[in-house]
Amino acid sequence: MSPKPPSTPLDPAVAELERLRASIDNIDAALIHMLAERFRCTQEVGKLKARAHLPPADPSRETRQIERLRQLARDAHLDPDFAEKFLAFVIREVIRHHEAIAADARRASEG
Amino acid sequence: MSPKPPSTPLDPAVAELERLRASIDNIDAALIHMLAERFRCTQEVGKLKARAHLPPADPSRETRQIERLRQLARDAHLDPDFAEKFLAFVIREVIRHHEAIAADARRASEG
Asked: Which of A10, A17, A59, A105 has the highest local Cβ count within 10 Å?
């Protein structure tokens, strides 16, 4: 009898790996959809701030966000430094979006 | 009569900003908890791979994950390049965790 190949579905380790990967894939789909919804909100914030002549940046809001996410991370046994890096990563993308909106607005007013 | 300060709760723009920020804060809490759960899964994957002597990296799995997340992003009107950068950001952290687990295991076997 030839040895069982490691990728057979009956191998318990491979079956467990497949189970964990299915959870990771579900979580990733949830993350992508939550991120899409977050950017919908920040696009609205960008348009609102431009319309109402509110300042684009709000450092005290950002400080509160960082502290809150670090605490949520600690409560969920997630590294708070990672949570802070994650927020910074997302905010960099928000700023990129807002710059694109501003550039579009400039082009529209010049065109 | 003095002019109404911009931060009064009755200003419709500020009220709308507060409404959007409350949604962003809810979404951020959901993201942090989903990320915490994702890292629980990848920690299990790391331990399982070490126990079952499965290879730590799986490039074909990663290629499939990238393509799937890019498609989910397109469906959700999120920039697929951002989704790919996001996955790379998370996977860097997973690798950092796995390296820490491996270092702990080495210390335990040497100690």
From this structure: A17
